[in-house]
Design goal:
mainly alpha, 8 helices, 231 residues
């Protein structure tokens, strides 16, 4: 399949991801604003009654190492490494996507002012609002955008592993936010939906840049061939 068709197909995929994420986020937001879902209480109570002390301690540890600030610092470090290797645009897309995830989470939290679960559901005391989960939004966005950044340089097998790793990180953090009682289920769903929008936007940016670079390389090749043929 030609690069043009492949690029066009991936762009439609990213557009669909953005549209689907925006729709799910909007629906979840309206549900939370109108009347917090009864499912939230059911899930939170079930998790609190089912978790063991060991799982609780594990969840608190995971929560500490996956804080948005920690993830952002790691991403900035990766961005610097990418810039050092001359991949400036990849670094910019990765860092901006992660910062956008952080900023979006803070903005929506302050707008909605949704209370967090309280003890005995919550194992941690956190003052900031609950909706959406900043942990999930930041980790999901950073993980999948990093996979997109690395995509052209990986083998088919490595690509599958990169997506599996991103999905695993996302699942661990999403479950952990419920496990420690830091968020309601709808907070996590909204964070996943918002990150889908950011991942789609990042994918479009990377796809457009790589497509433009590919067209530029072909144009240069044709020009070189024409000059060589005429000499």
């Amino acid at each position: 399949m030609s690069h043009g068709r492949t690029g066009s197909g991936s762009r439609w995929l990213f557009l669909a991801l953005m549209a689907g994420g925006a729709l799910v986020f909007a629906v979840t937001f309206m549900i939370v604003q109108a009347n917090p879902a009864a499912l939230d209480d059911t899930v939170a109570d079930w998790v609190a009654n089912s978790r063991s002390d060991i799982l609780g301690h594990w969840g608190v540890a995971v929560a500490a190492v996956t804080r948005p600030l920690v993830v952002t610092v790691i991403v900035v470090g990766v961005g610097i490494a990418l810039m050092w290797r001359g991949r400036i645009r990849d670094a910019v897309v990765l860092v901006l996507a992660t910062l956008a995830a952080d900023g979006l989470a803070v903005f929506v939290k302050e707008w909605t002012q949704r209370p967090r679960p309280e003890a005995p559901i919550a194992l941690l005391t956190q003052a900031e609002p609950s909706f959406p989960s900043g942990h999930v939004l930041t980790v999901t966005t950073a993980s999948f955008v990093l996979a997109l950044v690395l995509w052209p340089y990986l083998s088919a097998r490595a690509r599958r592993w990169s997506l599996a790793a991103a999905a695993t990180f996302t699942l661990i953090v999403a479950v952990d936010r419920l496990l420690v009682g830091a968020h309601w289920l709808t907070d996590v769903i909204a964070a996943l939906a918002a990150s889908a929008v950011l991942i789609g936007m990042s994918g479009l940016a990377l796809s457009w840049h790589r497509g433009a670079k590919h067209r530029g390389d072909h144009s240069e090749t044709r020009t070189t061939t024409f000059i060589a043929a005429g000499s």
